[in-house]
Amino acid sequence: MTNEQLWVKYKEHNSNEAKEALIIHYVSLVKIIAGRLFTSYNAHVEFDDLLGYGVIGLIDAIEKFDHKKQIKFETYANIRIRGAIIDEIRHLDWIPRSTRQKYKRIEDAITKLQAEYGYDIPDEIVAEEMGMPLDEYLKLLGEVTTYSVVSLEEKIDDNTSFDIKSSNQDFEPETHYIDEEMKMLLADVIDKLPEKERLVLQLYYYSELTYKEIAEVLSVSESRVSQIHTKAISKLRISLKSVY
Q: Domain named RNA polymerase sigma-70: which ranges (predicted)?
C-alpha cells in the first residue's frame, strides 16, 4: 500500500492500522532529527529520550496533518518533531543558572563592542571588556557552547509558529512572513560574520559535521571550534533580540 493510500485510509476511514503504518514509515525522520539534536545535548540527555520526544511530535503531526493540502508531510513533520523535542528539553531545565549568567555576560560584552568593531571582534578585546584574561575568556566560551545553541533555538521557536491553514501556501500568511523575515535577517548577519565563523556554521548546520570533523577541516582543536561556534551563535541571537 502506498503512502497516499495510507493517508486516505487513516484520514478518511479512521484506520488505526494505517496510522500505525504511517508512524512506522516516518520514524526514520524522527531518528534523523533526534540524532542531529543529540550532538548539541548529548551531555545532558539520552538519545533514546530525544527519540521518544520526537515520536510524540511525529504522532501529533500525523494526527493534525491534512493530506489534501499541497504540502509535503516531511516538511510539516520536521517542524512538529523538532518542536516537540525542544519543548521537552526546555522542561528538563538542566542548564545551571550560573551558565546562563556567564553566557549573558559574553552576549552583553559582544553587544556593546559590535557598535565599534562590527561583527569581527578580536577575542582579546572581548576578554578585556569582560575584565578577564584571554585564556579564561576562551575557556568560558567552551563552557557555554551548549547553552548558546539552546538559547538561539528558543529565540527562533518563540518567534515562529507553523501550521497548515491555507491551500495556497504552506503556512498562515502572517507566520510565513515572520519566518521569511527571520531567515533574511539571519542570512544577512551570517554574511557579515568573519570567515571562520561563517564556515563553522555552514559545516555544522548544513554539512552536518561534528566538532571533531570540523576541527580536522580547519586544522584547529575541537575546543577552538566550540569557541568559534559560540561566538557566531551569540551574534545571531543578538541580531534577533534587536528585532523580536
A: 210-236
Q: Are 178 and 240 in contact (CB under 8 A)?
A: no
Q: Which domain holds residue 190?
A: 97-241
Note whether 236 and 192 are same-domain residues.
Answer: yes
Domain boundary among 92, 119, 139: 92
- CATH number, domain with residue 184: 1.20.140.160
Q: Would you write out the chain's pLDDT as a tens digit for each of its 244 residues?
A: 888 899 999 999 999 999 999 999 999 999 988 887 786 666 667 889 999 999 999 999 999 999 888 788 988 888 889 888 877 877 776 667 788 888 899 999 999 999 899 999 999 999 999 999 999 999 998 888 777 776 776 666 555 443 333 333 344 444 444 456 667 777 888 899 999 999 998 888 777 777 888 899 999 998 899 899 999 989 988 887 766 5
Of the residues 92, 123, 156, the one at which a domain ends = 92
- Are residue 127 and residue 193 in the same domain, yes or no? yes
d(CA 220, CA 239): 27
Residues 69, 125, single domain; the answer is: no
Asked if residue 41 lies in contact with residue 70, where contact means CB atoms within 8 angstroms, the answer is: no
Between the alpha carbon of residue 89 and those of residues 22, 43, 95, 161, 166, the distances in Å are: 26, 12, 10, 18, 31
The structure's pTM equals: 0.61
Residues 80 and 105 in one domain: no
Asked if residue 197 lies in contact with residue 112, where contact means CB atoms within 8 angstroms, the answer is no
Measured distance CA(132)–CA(84) in Å, rounded: 39
- Structural domain tally of the chain? 2
Quote the cell numbers at residue 18. Answer: 494505517
